[in-house]
From TrEMBL:
<feature type="transmembrane region" description="Helical">
    <location>
        <begin position="190"/>
        <end position="206"/>
    </location>
</feature>
<dbReference type="GO" id="GO:0016757">
    <property type="term" value="F:glycosyltransferase activity"/>
</dbReference>
<keyword id="KW-0808">Transferase</keyword>
<feature type="transmembrane region" description="Helical">
    <location>
        <begin position="340"/>
        <end position="357"/>
    </location>
</feature>
<keyword id="KW-0472">Membrane</keyword>
<feature type="transmembrane region" description="Helical">
    <location>
        <begin position="369"/>
        <end position="386"/>
    </location>
</feature>
<dbReference type="Pfam" id="PF13231">
    <property type="entry name" value="PMT_2"/>
</dbReference>
<feature type="transmembrane region" description="Helical">
    <location>
        <begin position="278"/>
        <end position="298"/>
    </location>
</feature>
<feature type="transmembrane region" description="Helical">
    <location>
        <begin position="139"/>
        <end position="159"/>
    </location>
</feature>
<feature type="domain" description="Glycosyltransferase RgtA/B/C/D-like">
    <location>
        <begin position="71"/>
        <end position="234"/>
    </location>
</feature>
<feature type="transmembrane region" description="Helical">
    <location>
        <begin position="15"/>
        <end position="33"/>
    </location>
</feature>
<keyword id="KW-0328">Glycosyltransferase</keyword>
<feature type="transmembrane region" description="Helical">
    <location>
        <begin position="310"/>
        <end position="328"/>
    </location>
</feature>
<feature type="transmembrane region" description="Helical">
    <location>
        <begin position="218"/>
        <end position="251"/>
    </location>
</feature>
<dbReference type="InterPro" id="IPR038731">
    <property type="entry name" value="RgtA/B/C-like"/>
</dbReference>
<feature type="transmembrane region" description="Helical">
    <location>
        <begin position="89"/>
        <end position="108"/>
    </location>
</feature>
<feature type="transmembrane region" description="Helical">
    <location>
        <begin position="115"/>
        <end position="133"/>
    </location>
</feature>
Length: 551
């Protein structure tokens, strides 16, 4: 067979990859706020990642020069996105597409363990609903969403090991080591499944006296881990920012962001309570989760060994516990819970493969196109049933996320409107302070870079970290930036907004800051109001204010 024939044969056998890619672009286009169909990505976290990533591309160091607590790979990804589109999060859209594509591909590989190729393709096409389930997948571009396929890849390796007497090739251990390093430097609270997997496999090899397999585990996993982490260690050492990285990424996260002061055991029980509540709160989640887990444990076609089933359950529980460890029930940010979903996928995949076998469902060359297209349409319909983000897109002009004015004239959200004003009225790059709330997207649209360590506020009560707002007040008092943006509830003036008494000193729903009354005198003395704009955000009607430094 000629080289050309081999290439054609290889491509024809993998045509499903092109289908997965097209479906990923289609589905993400309708649900992710980074999509070209949307006006703007309003997510405070996403804009914060983008601001820090863009700053990194300009030599401003995370942790050392600006305060932010996610891992460095998050900022690198968003920094690269800023090179594609510097005033929007459009550059993140390819990463979102890649994440969903990899999810479908790994589900295909899992299904292939138990069924034929075309059936596995059909099952993979039906799976995106798990990754795009609102409100867990809200605006998109969360670490949980981007690492969704990594968590699925771990489960796939467990399934492979279960079928091969727990003997794995070196390249799979290397890949898992890399994914551990990647996750460690993106959001280490997502490492629960890997921790249990590695401890269990190490213990298994000790019990079986499989020293060769243990050496392979250590050697190849360490190689993958170093590939992911060593470049950052060198970077932080070279820029003298290693101490700042450890202090912010580990100490601050563990001591300031945790909401629960209970004992370790009590926090673990709280985590399981949260997970149990999650499994009960939606019929689809209950069926795919609780009922699905029971089905998986008693089915003989999923895991081949009892040890494999036990390990899956342990990984699932510890994964769930780590994700929300240190949080009280009812106080968890729902996008954290998206990391529960990879474990919901597995019972559903095997339920499909078993149904295909039992009812002798055949997909062949004659009905292939019809079946796969039907699966794509059904999957899209399911996604629209659990995620209505498209209602805030350009397809619905002047929706409430853009403006609350009743008008037929095309409108833009406050972020785009203010960004144009700042760029047109600034000499060179604008300097900006986002006062009192998490990044509202104005650094993104104006092109401004952080010029102060606390360039935004955080989900931290004022009495836990008073230096944040105190530092911002100093910037305003000393007139250190040209522009200031802040927000109040609709109908409230800057000088009369005291904050909500029930959440004193903390950002509240709608990303509304803790109050502007205390800062109003100094602010209005040094800055004048240029414009304001009211739109809906996360169930709250919010007025955004743009102020410019007085000459």
């Amino acid at each position: 067979m000629s080289v050309s024939s081999k290439v054609k044969s290889w491509l024809s056998k993998r045509a499903y990859l092109g289908l997965f890619l097209l479906i990923s672009i289609w589905f993400m286009g309708f649900v992710s706020y980074t999509s070209p169909l949307f006006y703007f990505d309003y997510s405070p976290d996403n804009n914060c990642f983008f601001t820090v990533g863009k700053a990194l591309m300009h030599g401003i160091l995370p942790y050392k020069d600006v305060f932010e607590q996610k891992g460095p790979y998050v900022y690198l990804m968003h920094g690269l996105a800023s090179l594609i589109s510097s005033r929007s999060l459009l550059g993140i859209f390819p990463f979102e597409v890649l994440s969903l594509f990899l999810t479908m591909y790994i589900v295909y590989k899992i299904a292939r363990l138990n069924t034929y190729q075309l059936a596995a393709c059909a099952i993979a096409i039906l799976v995106p609903v798990f990754q795009l389930f609102h409100p867990y997948y809200n605006y998109g571009d969360t670490v949980e969403s981007l690492l969704f396929p990594a968590m699925l890849a771990l489960i796939y390796v467990l399934l492979k090991a279960d079928r091969a007497h727990f003997v794995l090739p070196g390249q799979l251990w290397c890949l898992q080591g890399f994914l551990v390093g990647l996750t460690f430097l993106m959001k280490y609270t997502l490492l629960g499944g890997w921790i249990i997997f590695y401890l269990a496999m190490f213990g298994y090899y000790v019990k079986q006296k499989s020293w060769r397999e243990m050496a392979k585990l250590i050697r190849w996993s360490l190689l993958g881990f170093l590939i992911a982490t060593l470049p950052w260690l060198i970077f932080f050492l070279a820029t003298h920012s290693l101490t700042a990285f450890f202090h912010v990424y580990f100490y601050e996260n563990m001591h300031i962001y945790m909401l629960s002061d209970n004992s370790v055991f009590a926090k673990f029980i709280e985590s399981l309570t949260i997970y149990s509540s999650f499994l009960r709160q939606d019929p689809l989640i209950f069926v795919c989760g609780f009922v699905g887990y029971v089905y998986l444990l008693f089915s003989r076609s999923t895991f081949q060994t009892t040890w494999g089933k036990m390990l899956f359950v342990m990984m699932m529980i510890v994964n769930a516990a780590f994700i929300v460890y240190g949080y009280h029930p009812g106080q968890v940010y729902q996008y954290y819970e998206l990391a529960f979903f990879p474990y919901l996928v597995i019972p559903s995949v095997f339920a499909f493969t078993n149904a295909i076998k039992r009812f002798n469902i055949t997909i062949n060359d004659q009905n292939e196109s019809l079946v796969l297209l039907s699966c794509a349409l059904i999957s899209f319909f399911l996604i629209l049933g659990v995620n209505d983000n498209i209602l805030s897109s350009r397809i619905f002009p002047n929706n409430s996320s853009v403006t609350l004015n009743q008008t037929n004239r095309p409108q833009q959200p406050a972020q785009v409107e203010f960004g144009k004003l700042m760029r047109s009225q600034s000499k060179g790059r604008p300097t900006l302070l986002n006062y009192g709330s998490i990044d509202m997207g104005f650094y993104t649209t104006s092109g401004a870079l952080p010029s102060t360590y606390y360039f935004q506020n955080y989900n931290i009560a004022h009495d836990k970290a008073p230096q944040i707002l105190n530092s911002q007040a100093t910037v305003i008092k000393k007139r250190q930036v040209q522009w200031v943006v802040l927000n109040t509830p609709a109908g409230k003036q800057i000088g009369k907004w005291h904050g909500y008494a029930s959440a004193k000193g903390k950002i509240t729903s709608g990303n509304i800051n803790p109050g502007t009354k205390k800062i109003a005198k100094s602010l209005l003395k040094n800055y004048r109001v240029v414009t304001n704009h009211t739109q809906a955000f996360e169930g709250a009607n919010v007025t955004y204010w743009l102020l410019k430094r007085k000459d």
